Amino acid sequence: MLGLHLIRANMNKKAQKSLNHQTEPDAHIELGIVRVEKSYTNDPETETKSIQEFNLKLKSVKILAYLVFVYLLVVHVVGSTLVSIYLSLIPGAKRGLKTKGINLETFSMFTTASTFSNCGFVPNENMMVFRGNPGLLLILIPQVLMGNTMFPVCLRLSIWFAEKMTRREELRYMLRNSRELGYGHLIPGLHCVYLGITVLGLVFVQVVVFCSLEWNSEEIGVGGLSVYEKVVGFMFQVVNSRHAGESVFDLSAVSPAILIMFVLMMYLPPYTTYLPIEQGENTSTRKNKGFWQENILFSQLTYLLIFIIVICVTERHKLKTDPLNFNLLNIVVEVISAYGNVGFTVGYSCGKQINPDGHCKDAWYGFAGRWSNEGKFVLILVMFVGRLKKFNKRGGRAWSLA
């Protein structure tokens, strides 16, 4: 919102400078909505059109600043109100605040502001005490998305709704010329569609992986939760992996495969988009030969992360029972070595076993020799991908890390 006011102030400054250089001032033009510098064509019709477009753009920036303010105000007021109502109606949720001496209204406003801004501060023991309150988590999940990864989508939907209600020309100008306003959060319609699909797709993949690996895990604290509470809790946890950082489960006990997945999510910028289209306001899918292959190919770094996650899944039992040998760093070294066709290995030491196996004997073969058959098969695939990596130089081009 502050950025929009600065853009507006800069436009007014340029307009004032143009006004001072005019030789024929127009008495009907208000301060801040003025004649732009004359074009080199000296065509009155072209000059009039330029003036109208400049004035329309200036008005659009002003209205957009007000819309963003209303957006922020509505989200905070509605969000804190819903949190307060839920805590008032559910004695179990309110009990956690009473034991800490936290005022209900203070908690509601603070948590809403922190969640929407993706700060992650909660005036309590994070959100773990509310893992059995799916209603509260469902109230906070949209706030996490609306304040970060889905902000451009929600903002454009707000403008579209306002335009349908008021039929204002400035609102139509925003929708058709979003990049012209210079506001980075306002992006073209098709780009918004791909951003929304990307965000929801990443959330879906994380929820599926989380449910598959930790559904019955007592270590992270899912014991005693119903199916509905587990699903909502997992969804809340993965939504927060994109910068918000609020937790309802103990991450120290989470599977290494999930931690690697969270590392990837934390690395991605908020507006990361799968965008298989040409950049520009009038976007259209490219039809040139071979472009569809580029759309489905990932970057080489992404493939490595996927392979590491898969191996952590196949070797998850040994990661828990033999952590000194089967640790994440050793797996990363083995995968990168296979990808580069280097052959380095950290090996395996029977002396590092926490629960000694009387049948274990140190052997000459590498660390992968102790892996499961599934893990070895994945490593074979890594070797092939590494040998053929020169054929994937353009992979990942459809992903925009904006």
UniProtKB/TrEMBL annotation:
Q: Where in the cell is it found?
A: Membrane
Keyword Nucleus set for record: no
Instruction: Give the keywords, sorted.
Output: Ion transport, Membrane, Transmembrane, Transmembrane helix, Transport
Q: Where are the transmembrane segments?
A: 63-90, 135-162, 183-208, 220-239, 251-268, 296-314
| Bilayer disposition of the protein | Multi-pass membrane protein
Q: Which superkingdom does the taxonomy of this entry point to?
A: Eukaryota
- Does the entry feature the keyword Ion transport, yes or no? yes
Its family? Belongs to the TrkH potassium transport family. HKT (TC 2.A.38.3) subfamily.
Q: What is this protein called?
A: Uncharacterized protein
> What species was this sequence derived from?
Rehmannia glutinosa (Chinese foxglove)
